[in-house]
Structures
1.
Amino acid sequence: MKCNRCVPGIAVEGFKKCGSCLKRDRKAQKIKREKRISNGLCRHCGKHPPTSKTYCHICNAKMKTWRSQYKIDVIMGYGGKCICCGETEFDFLTIDHINGGGNEHRKLLKSKGYTNTIQFYRLLKVSNFPKQFQCLCYNCNCAKGACGICPHQRKREAEQFVQPPVIQLLDS
């Protein structure tokens, strides 16, 4: 897909602009945001926020709704429940790298300009929910990261290898 700003550029995956246009826009936005902050205004719209806050009430509410909707879309795109234990409580659900490597992937994304979770969710959504990710609850995700395998999965695997009891018939 071509950049919607400069015709010769190729748009970065998940965006409508090429890398140089994104950098130029981000630099301009950063300067504008820093000026607003130095003047004690809302970082987003330029209105006066409550004391010691960086966003006004309206922008804060909009961003909270926007972040929640992205998470809902991504979690639902991956089935809406933990594939290990079946947990459906939305606040507990996370996205997991199936084959590990999440730390390296985050570093790679950061080097490409993806600096937060919402940008990662946007990339997943635009990429049509790639198969190398899955939905896990926080407990299963942490256990997988710490132990290499979730206790639920370890238990299921152990149950598969349990031999059925042998029944001996008594000779009469």
Note: The first strand starts at residue 93 and ends at 97.
2.
Amino acid sequence: MAPELSPEQLQAVNAVGSAIVVTASAGSGKTEVVARRVERLLDESPNEPFRVLALSYTVKAADELRDRLAHRLGDARRVDTDTIHAFAHNIIRQHGTWAALPPEPELVELPPQLAKPKLTPNAMGPSAAARTNSCQLVGFRRRSSSSQTCFK
């Protein structure tokens, strides 16, 4: 049996609109909220041709969401579940050449000393400065090339 939801969680599950973002601390029930929202959307429109895209930040949450939906829905063909990073990487692999990226890009994580933003905290404000501390820049390079050129 699924856990009981708080009023705020129920509000997210029952929100009207095409997209929502659920943010909360670890262990607060985000995955359950998203699973129930997806389940509700599909239950309310069984014959509609739309699909649902459910993204998370971690592989663990994406796997857990995929498992819950498969268990509850039986057939989750109308749902795509992945991490936001894997989803973006798939888009770049499929359509990156339109933006002059290499045909088979390889993700490259830059070393921390190169990934530091060149912005000063005073220019961005205190909250923006705090966000840059966890910033990681990612580039792309051609798989077949020996060049280390990163496309940013």
Note: Residues 1-97 form a domain with the Rossmann fold fold (CATH 3.40.50.300).
